[in-house]
Amino acid sequence: MKNTKEKEHYLKEILRLEMAAKTVSVSCIAEVLGVSKSSVSNMIKKLVSMDLLNSAPYKAIEFTPKGRDLARTIIAKHRLIESFLVEVMDFDPENVHEIAEEIEHIKSPAFFRKVQQMLDNRELDPHGSPIPNVKF
Ligand SMILES: [Zn+2]
Q1: 32 Cα to the center of ligand 1, angstroms
Q2: pLDDT tens-digit series, residues 10-64
Q3: Where are the domains of the chain?
Q4: Ligand 1 centre from 88 Cα, in Å?
Q5: Which alpha helices (H) appear in the chain, and where do they start and end?
Q6: CATH architecture, domain defined by 67-118
Q7: From ligand 1's centre to the CA of 80, what distance in Å?
Q8: Which of 21, 28, 52, 85 has the smallest CB count inside 10 Å?
Q9: CATH architecture under which domain 2-63 falls
């Protein structure tokens, strides 16, 4: 479970870097996650072996189609949960990120379909970031 969470965390951050039009490299991932470059390299190797990323010497790290789908799904879960906490549960937008970090690792597609439906397929999260349009 801890491994799944860590893996999903990496994929999410890599997609965020990519969305911010940054070149995705071991050193920039290490910087955003606050971990050593060697831990990043190890995790990248694992993600490449799982067919989630492509990586070659002197080239930017890229998603495979499977990796990109998974990363988009995790970001969609995170942002849907943040929206749900604010709109339905009346949380302060400042306080929802940490809770979403935990709930985003729930598997149940039925749960997220329901959240999506209750939010009327909204497009932006409470921080104004786009919610990827994912079919759970
Ligand atoms: Zn957040």
Answers
A1: 14
A2: 999 999 999 887 789 999 999 999 999 999 999 999 999 999 999 988 888 999 9
A3: 2-63, 67-118
A4: 17
A5: 2-19, 26-33, 37-49, 65-87, 97-103, 109-118
A6: Orthogonal Bundle (1.10)
A7: 10
A8: 21
A9: Orthogonal Bundle (1.10)
Which helix H or strand E contains 62, and what residues bound it?
A: strand 62-63
Return the closest-CA partner of residue 115 out of 71, 74, 83, 69: 83
Distance CA 6, CA 40 (A): 11
Q: How far is the CA of 78 from the centre of ligand 1 (A)?
A: 6
Q: How many whole angstroms from 38 Cα to the centroid of ligand 1?
A: 26
* pLDDT (tens digit per residue) in 85-124: 999 999 999 999 999 999 998 999 999 999 999 999 889 9
41 C-alpha to ligand 1 centroid (Å): 25
Identical fold at 2-63 and 67-118? Answer: no
Separation of CA 34 and ligand 1 centre (Å)? 17
Whether the model clears a pTM of 0.85, i.e. scores above it, the answer is: yes
